[in-house]
Amino acid sequence: MPVSFDKYVTTGAYHWAESSPLNWRYNAPLIARYRSVLRRIPVGASRILDVGCGDGYLTYLIARGHPQARITGIGDEESGIQQANVMTELTRMRNLEFRHVPTGATPFRDAEFPIIVLADVIEHVPQVPAMLRELRRVLAGGGALIVTTPHKQRGSVWDTRHVKEYTARELRNELEAFFNVDMIWGSWPMHYFKMWRRKRAGRIALDLAARTGWNAFDSEIGNPDQSYGQLIAIARNV
Prior knowledge:
Number of strands: 8
CATH topology: Rossmann fold
């Protein structure tokens, strides 16, 4: 069943706040997730689609790193799109746009995007095959779909708003119904994440380290077990 996502209404443009080193809400795991995506976008990409862009902070980072590209962020949560437009207007960037797109078919041509980003979205979607089928339609031949999602942990859930949380095998199976999957990586070592989430002193120390150049959550491994809390996948259209 769909789970209501009201976080932008209740919390505002929280990705912007949590990504600022000057903000007390700074979030080292979130920064690491963004880096996982950004390092996988090739130089020279001409069109990039960010699906489920929320308040637009990741979309903004992509646009800043690829000024030659046209970047489009879409989402079905209208409050998030409104905040994305407000926040990015302040940056005076002109190579990105945001669109409110209700769940269903996207308003794009076949094979329009060589790169599509799906960052921590798939776990919120009740009809994943329909979404992946549509993304395959608008992804160019040989193009890459970059996916991140929380790694399912035994005996707990990451967020009650999630429709489904995935193991690495479950994510691969879901994607391979429509794409060729290059690799599933893991990031966020769970011993660091538990320290960050459960202990105030641990969070302060890990966030401070990330602010000054070393982020414990940047560590990645191929074919991860559950000792890693975030999954990253590259899926290709053939």
